[in-house]
């Protein structure tokens, strides 16, 4: 959605957005599933971006990676779903959103 070529570029150019979406997804899963993540979960997820810094940014395997969050709805995942819609509008998705 932000025209980044790699995960590392996304983190360096959109640090706050990456932090916000991690927080959003953790909160959404906690609310939906009635679970609590252990302390440090958000920090570990953020640190994982360092491991995959050279991975290309892309939306792929939607059914396995993004659909769960998309189906939680805009109230629970407004940033996530908004970014997916931006990608769709920009022609970056090879599929239709449900």
How is this fold's topology laid out?
Elements: H1 7-13, H2 15-33, H3 41-51, H4 62-65, H5 67-71, H6 78-89
Helix pairs in contact: 1-2, 2-3
The portion of residues assigned to helices is 55-70%
The count of helical stretches stands at 6
Beta-strand percentage? Answer: under 5%
Instruction: Report the mean per-residue pLDDT as an integer.
Output: 90
Low-confidence stretches: none
Major β-sheet profile:
none
Radius of gyration: 13 Å
Q: Shape, please?
A: globular
| End-to-end separation | 18 Å
- Strand element count: 0
Spell the H/E element sequence: HHHHHH
Structural class call reads mainly alpha
Plain-language structure description:
The chain is mainly α and 98 residues long. It is 59% helix and 0% strand. It has 6 helices and no strands. It is globular, with a radius of gyration of 13 Å. The two termini are 18 Å apart. The mean pLDDT is 90.
Brief summary of the model shown:
The chain is 59% helix and 0% strand. The chain has helices at 7-13, 15-33, 41-51, 62-65, 67-71, 78-89. Helix 2 (15-33) packs across helix 3.
């Amino acid at each position: 959605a932000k025209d980044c070529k790699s995960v590392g570029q996304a983190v360096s150019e959109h640090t706050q957005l990456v932090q916000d979406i991690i927080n959003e997804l953790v909160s959404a899963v906690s609310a939906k599933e009635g679970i609590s993540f252990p302390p440090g979960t958000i920090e570990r997820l953020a640190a994982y971006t360092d491991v995959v810094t050279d991975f290309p940014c892309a939306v792929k395997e939607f059914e396995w990676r993004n659909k769960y969050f998309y189906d939680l709805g805009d109230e629970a995942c407004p940033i996530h779903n908004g970014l997916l819609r931006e990608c769709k509008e920009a022609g970056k998705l090879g599929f239709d959103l449900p």
